[in-house]
């Protein structure tokens, strides 16, 4: 159900994630804590977009399979 909602709102999802990423400085993302904070920020933004009040009804976790800082 969450996956279907994300697919339906994919343009907004991409926009919000790109805006969030562009607001970060490379130094913020260089540490493990910075990456964890980014994952939490993305999770919160997606759940806000989906109208999910709790993790149980929204995105439970954000995982990175690659991380490139330029």
What does this structure look like?
The protein has helices at residues 2-8, 10-22, 26-29, 32-50. The chain is mainly alpha-helical and 70 residues long. The model has no long low-confidence stretch (mean pLDDT 91).
Question: How do the helices and strands follow one another from N- to C-terminus?
Answer: HHHH
- Tally of separate helices: 4
| Amount of helix | 55-70%
Strand content: under 5%
End-to-end CA span: 35 Å
How does the major sheet shape up?
A: none
> Would you tell me the overall average pLDDT?
91
As residue ranges, the low-confidence spans are none
Question: Multimeric state of these chains?
Answer: single chain
Helix/strand-derived class?
mainly alpha
Strand tally is 0
**Radius of gyration (Å):** 12 Å
Mass-distribution shape: globular
List the helices and strands and how they pair.
Elements: H1 2-8, H2 10-22, H3 26-29, H4 32-50
Considering the chains and any ligands shown, give keywords for the structure.
70 residues
Briefly summarize what is shown.
The protein has 70 residues and is mostly helical. It has helices at 2-8, 10-22, 26-29, 32-50.
């Amino acid at each position: 159900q969450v996956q279907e909602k994300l697919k339906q709102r994919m343009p907004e999802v991409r926009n919000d994630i790109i805006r969030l990423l562009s607001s970060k400085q490379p130094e913020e993302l260089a540490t493990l804590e910075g990456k964890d904070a980014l994952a939490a920020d993305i999770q919160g933004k997606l759940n806000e977009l989906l109208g999910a009040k709790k993790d149980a009804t929204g995105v439970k976790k954000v995982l990175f399979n690659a991380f490139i800082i330029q």
